[in-house]
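Bumping my old thread because nobody answered last time. Still need a sequence for this structure:
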């Protein structure tokens, strides 16, 4: 019994060590994170085989929430159960959470709002999202049907800018994808994956996911407590996002800026800063929470926005073997992914472009940063540093 406990503790410490190193070094967004995971977990440590990793990534792309974080949680779960998933999440997420909370506190106390380097970080956000759009559009809208779904998503989300509009667009796109691609031919799946989670526990997690999604808005109305409202807003945003961190931007923006919890400038400055840190972009929630209610708000926001992802990945892993062989589900997912591209383009226009590119020199600077990122293949932290320094220099010229 003691040997088993020591062995389990050793495995958990190893997961924490590896995931923390990834959390400190994984720059570049969700796609880059999956590459880092593959190198560390699959090639170096062989915790999972190639086919198993591909299947896990496919599941996380199917679910709402931060795909790369869910993959990390899933690997931790398969390695050491639910506790392994928690440890993996903490290691990968905590470094960027700490940095963004500190930035939020400094932003408030030192009054960075009008400094030029904040303007530079806004332009960095333009560049990063533009790059994400190009990559996602190429992969997720290869045919005219999916391009049309994306166009529909752009028009609707630009004309009616509410969180409910985005949910409606995603559901409609899933239905259209189901109709268009339900008979699409797929490679026959043959391998079965094993997960150390019972189906009963998985059902409890899924029930909790949907229960909180329904109960939190009701509790918010009844109590009028600020922390309940905060938790509800972040939990809902984490529950309804398909496509990863960049797509959570419009949901969070429309949840917190119009209500006056933070200004447009504070929001975009934090989003730019979030590009400068490694780890998942969803940790941007820690910055928003800290701006609103200090470090306690930052930690509350982090738990709330990642909780849906954790409940969903743990709740669906035991059922994935049967789900991944259903072509109708895959067809619906193809429609959802196309709509995500449209939602991202809509968010790129507003608020990112409309509040960041205000002159010809802003656009010129953005094209330089874009070339550095896309054509010269420079690391993201170099782009962020150049954006901050360039924004400061531009403010001296104006």
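Sorry it took so long. Here it is:
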């Amino acid at each position: 019994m003691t040997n088993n406990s020591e062995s389990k503790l050793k495995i958990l410490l190893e997961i924490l060590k590896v995931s923390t190193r990834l959390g400190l070094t994984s720059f570049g967004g969700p796609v880059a994170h999956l590459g880092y995971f593959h190198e560390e977990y699959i090639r170096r440590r062989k915790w999972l085989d190639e086919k198993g990793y591909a299947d896990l990534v496919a599941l996380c792309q199917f679910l709402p929430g931060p795909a790369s974080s869910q993959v990390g949680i899933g690997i931790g779960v398969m390695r050491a159960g639910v506790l392994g998933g928690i440890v993996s999440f903490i290691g990968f997420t905590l470094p960027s959470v700490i940095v963004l909370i500190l930035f939020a506190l400094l932003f408030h106390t030192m009054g960075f709002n009008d400094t030029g380097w904040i303007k530079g970080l806004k332009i960095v956000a333009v560049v990063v999202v533009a790059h994400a759009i190009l990559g996602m559009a190429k992969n997720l809208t290869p045919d005219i049907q999916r391009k049309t779904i994306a166009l529909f998503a752009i028009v609707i989300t630009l004309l009616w800018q509410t969180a409910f509009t985005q949910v409606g667009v995603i559901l409609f796109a899933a239905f259209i994808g189901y109709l268009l691609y339900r008979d699409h031919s797929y490679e026959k799946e043959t391998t079965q994956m094993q997960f150390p989670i019972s189906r009963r526990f998985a059902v409890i997690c899924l029930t909790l996911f949907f229960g909180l999604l329904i109960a939190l808005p009701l509790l918010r109305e009844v109590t009028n407590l600020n922390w309940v409202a905060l938790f509800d807003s972040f939990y809902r945003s984490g529950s309804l996002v398909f496509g990863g961190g960049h797509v959570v931007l419009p949901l969070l923006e429309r949840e917190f800026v119009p209500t006056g919890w933070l200004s447009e400038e504070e929001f975009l400055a934090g989003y730019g800063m979030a590009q400068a840190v490694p780890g998942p972009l969803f940790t941007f929630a820690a910055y928003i929470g800290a701006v609103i209610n200090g470090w306690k708000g930052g930690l509350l926001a982090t738990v709330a926005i990642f909780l849906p992802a954790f409940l969903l990945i743990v709740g669906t892993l035991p059922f994935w073997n049967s789900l991944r062989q259903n072509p109708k589900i895959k067809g619906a997912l193809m429609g959802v992914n196309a709509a995500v591209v449209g939602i991202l383009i809509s968010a790129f226009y507003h608020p990112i472009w409309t509040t960041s590119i205000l002159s010809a020199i802003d656009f010129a600077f953005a094209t330089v940063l874009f070339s550095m990122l896309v054509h010269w293949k420079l690391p993201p932290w170099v782009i962020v540093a150049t954006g901050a320094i360039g924004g400061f220099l531009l403010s001296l010229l104006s």
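Residues 67-110 form the longest helix (44 residues). Let me know if any region looks off to you.
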